[in-house]
Amino acid sequence: MNDAENGKRAAAERALALVEPGSVVGVGTGSTVRWFIEGLARMRHDIEGAVSSSEASTALLRERGIAVYDLNGVGEIPLYVDGADECDGSRCLIKGGGAALTREKIIAAVAREFVCIIDPAKRVDVLGRFPLPVEVIPMARSHVARELLDLGGQPVWREGVVTDNGNWILDVHHLQITDPEALETAINQIVGVVTVGLFARRRADRVLIGADGEI
Ligand SMILES: O=C(CO)[C@H](O)[C@H](O)COP(=O)(O)O
After folding, report:
1. Does the annotation mark 104 as catalytic?
2. What DSSP state is assigned to residue 84?
3. Pick the CATH number of 3-124+202-209 from 3.40.50.920, 3.40.50.1950, 3.60.40.10, 3.40.50.1360
4. What ipTM was predicted for this assembly?
5. 180 lines ligand 1 (CB under 6 A)
6. Which segments of the chain are extended strands (E)?
């Protein structure tokens, strides 16, 4: 296993220790979260189940014998565990490389604690090296792209990708995100935007960075 994979696994294993017995666990999406799901499978008899941020995670959770609930029917989610594409020193994140940003943001909003699990390559001083994903209503793609150009980014349509919600993704290149909350607010106000993959207003409460089998 390479260093990045070791780091992802170490962070995921550490997050398992935060799972409350008998609870419904919020589960994110991606290769780091896959390690978390494998660990959750070992303790599936100690939890009630999960709420999931994507069809891919739902399928894996069910394969591993973990009950997946509709968020609308769940009262409390003590813990949400998810990866990120970038993380700055204030625990602000870029997410959505796996196109699951909207459901991820919804579960993060509901959860009492949002724990982000990453490998060291994701840690940056200023967000924006990773293109910022924006989920858009398909008919608004060109309008939103023009507005994003005005905000100083270079939007590129992630052609062929349809989100679990039936929408499209624009990846915004060449941003230096020095004020993540302000940019999140500005992009949220563009008509046709469903979700921007900046997690600043509701950022991670805790970030676990796995490296060399340690945290
Ligand atoms: O936001 C995400 C999916 O929409 C993922 O958390 C992000 O892309 C990181 O994925 P990985 O753990 O595979 O690096």
Report:
1. yes
2. -
3. 3.40.50.1360
4. 0.98
5. no
6. 24-27, 49-52, 79-82, 86-87, 93-94, 113-118, 132-136, 154-157, 168-173, 193-196, 198-199, 206-209
Residue 71, pLDDT score: 98
- Over the chain (215 residues), the average pLDDT of each successive run of 10 is 89 97 98 98 98 98 98 96 98 98 98 98 98 98 98 98 98 97 98 98 98 83
Which are the contacts of 45, defined by CB distance < 8 A and separation ≥ 6?
none
Question: How far is it, in rounded angstroms, from Cα 103 to Cα 30?
Answer: 13
Q: Which of 104, 135, 147, 184 is catalytic?
A: 104
Residue with the smallest CA separation from ligand 1 atom 9 is: 84
For position 3, what pLDDT does the model report?
84
Ligand 1 center from residue 44 Cα (angstroms): 23
Q: Is 31 annotated in some ligand binding site? A: yes
> Rg (Cα) of the chain, in Å, rounded?
17
Q: Is 93 in the pocket of ligand 1 (CB under 6 A)?
A: no
Continuous H helices in 24-172: 31-42, 55-63, 101-110, 141-150
CA-to-CA dists, residue 82 to 68, 99, 108, 188, 211, angstroms = 16, 13, 9, 22, 17
Q: Please state, as a whole number, how many other Cβ atoms lie within 10 Å of the Cβ of residue 204.
A: 23
